[in-house]
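Incident review: delayed structure delivery

Summary: a single-chain prediction request sat in the queue longer than the usual turnaround. Root cause was a stuck worker, restarted by the on-call engineer. No data loss occurred. The affected request and its eventual output are reproduced below so the record is complete for anyone auditing the incident later.

Affected input:
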Amino acid sequence: MVILDLTDIVEETGKRWAIPLDFAPAPIPGAQFDGTAAGEVVVYNTGTELVFGGQATAVLQGVCSRCLTPLELPVTGEIEAQAPLSLVEAVLVGKPVEMELDLAAVLSPSGANLAELVGQALVLALPMHAVCSEECRGLCAGCGQNLNTETCRCEGANTDPRLGALAQWRRA
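Output delivered after worker restart:
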């Protein structure tokens, strides 16, 4: 957890703070990031709200959704969050307040959790299905052979019987 103390930031209207990223993003279920995130978080006090912005890049470790081989995929997320200044001030003094769930994970009486903010940006940038390459042919549905490395030997013998009518139609 990397906490940014917001007490000085709340008091100085119009000032901009840039914080370089050199820490691991918060853990995300179903996603493992390798090493630290690169980029920066920018915090700006507009006088009515705190605006968090910036960009974070990290390397996702996972498996290809087509052929199940391990992969490393660079992911870049845009950091975008706003919090009303009155809400931030109330949180900093420990008053119970209602806020959106994404802000509740970031703001606390001790400050802003930058690792959580970066983690949220990266999870929004994750692809729906990570693939090792766009040309990935995946696995054979019959024998499970990785079609990128070898040719399938089952020759379609395990065709789904529900598709039998289509096979007949194709031959005609």
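Verification: The longest strand covers residues 49-63.
Action items: add queue-age alerting; document worker restart procedure.
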